[in-house]
Amino acid sequence: MYEDHLSGWRYLWKSEDIRRKLLMTLMLLAIYRLAANVPVPGVDFAALSAFRQSSSGNNNFLGILDMLSGGTVSNFSLLSMGVYPYITAQIILQLLVPIIPALQARMNEDPREGRRWMEKWTYYLAVPMAALSAIGQINIFNSMAQTRIINFGFSKELWLSSVAVLLAMTAGTIFAIWIGELISEYGIRGQGLSLVIFAGIVARMPANLIHLLAMNRRAG
């Protein structure tokens, strides 16, 4: 049984096609994690560091968001929203199909063409969803921090820099979606977005483990 198990893993590496897909997947995930360290332009890092060390920045809600994003939320990264706006857009369209008869008829008439239509409009809807998510994240951070982490608003003095921030964060989400699509096409088929989310969770595990060990030592 043990030898069969080893031979299965050995076959995964000996198969040229599988090896190429695995290496391509790992390379794309490494690119994604490197890009996750790029911060949003205009962030006040001193205010961000103070916020992370404060009681507000250490609460459970932000901790969960940070865990799911691989630390990109607390770092105010361009990829802090990950692929979640795309998933939200996908859910919205799936809920609208049975509600709107014309969409339901379109899906039933030609399922393949209907899936293509869904994919196309999911990409379109992901863009405004990413922009709205970016506005929400910026406002939450600024409201919870003692000092504004990023100057954001649509006043006469701030509108240009605010638009630049929104474009940058939206582009980060589109980049994350693109990486996921490349993984699905050239790497592990159909699992790109799931692997992008999984990579973020795994990347945060060592830091979470160190944090738990430190808490146990202080408690002891």
Give the number of helices.
9
Distance between the termini: 44 Å
Biggest pleated sheet: none
What general outline do the C-alpha atoms trace? globular
Short account of what is shown:
The chain has nine helices and no strands. The chain has 220 residues and is mostly helical. Helix 5 (84-99) packs across helix 6 (101-109).
Key features of this structure:
220 residues; mainly alpha
How is this structure best described in words?
This protein is mainly α and about 220 residues long. About 75% of the residues lie in helices and about 0% in strands. It is built from 9 helices and no strands. Helix 5 packs across helix 6, helix 5 packs across helix 7 and helix 8 crosses helix 9. The longest helix is centred in the middle third of the chain and has 34 residues. The radius of gyration is 21 Å and the shape is globular. The mean pLDDT is about 80.
